[in-house]
Design goal:
Elements (H helix, E strand, L loop, with lengths): L2 H10 L4 H7 E9 L5 H6 L4 E4 L1 H14 E14 L2 E12 L5 E13 L2 E9 L1 H6 L8 E2 L8 E2 L1
Parallel strand pairs: 1-6
Antiparallel strand pairs: 1-2, 3-4, 4-5, 5-6, 7-8
């Protein structure tokens, strides 16, 4: 199976742990949203760098516990050697808050011999974490000389 075929098979079966075990290497590295952000990890415990094939399966299990997947649409998939890039969009609904996330995503993967051994998943972190927000606001000041923004 080519690296592209391997990644497509993984994405197609991401909710099936038994199939995922056959497609994800035992020494897989999975990076979700960032390498290490303790505050974001508190909100979404799968965020950060995770090691091992079981961590990939466990983390997607946590994701499915928190969100209903309304749409997952890979738009473009291409690769070179063992590297595979996937770009698309998704729409999830928070199971607790009912908030809907509509976000682009990008995945960088590496696969060899029918196993994915590296995954980096990026999305609109602000939107996904906000889907769990209960109350309160945050104040941001992004440009020098401008007024803070309350969200």
């Amino acid at each position: 199976m080519s690296p592209i075929d391997t990644v497509v098979a993984m994405l197609t079966n991401i909710g099936d742990p038994s199939v995922m075990r056959s497609l994800v290497a035992d020494d897989c590295t999975y990076i979700s949203l960032n390498k290490n952000n303790p505050d974001l990890h508190k909100i979404m415990p799968w965020c950060g760098t995770n090691l091992g094939g079981d961590s990939v399966i466990e983390n997607f299990g946590k994701i499915f516990q928190c969100w209903d997947i309304m749409e997952f649409n890979p738009v473009e998939i291409f690769g070179s050697d063992d590297r595979v890039a996937v770009f698309g969009t998704f729409k999830y609904r928070s199971k607790v808050q009912g908030q809907i996330v509509d976000s682009p995503f990008a995945i960088l993967s590496k696969a060899k011999d029918g196993k994915v051994n590296f995954i980096q998943f990026m999305e609109d972190t602000f939107a996904t974490s906000a889907s769990f927000k209960v109350s309160g606001s945050a104040t941001y000041n992004n440009f020098p000389g401008t007024e803070p923004i309350v969200v």
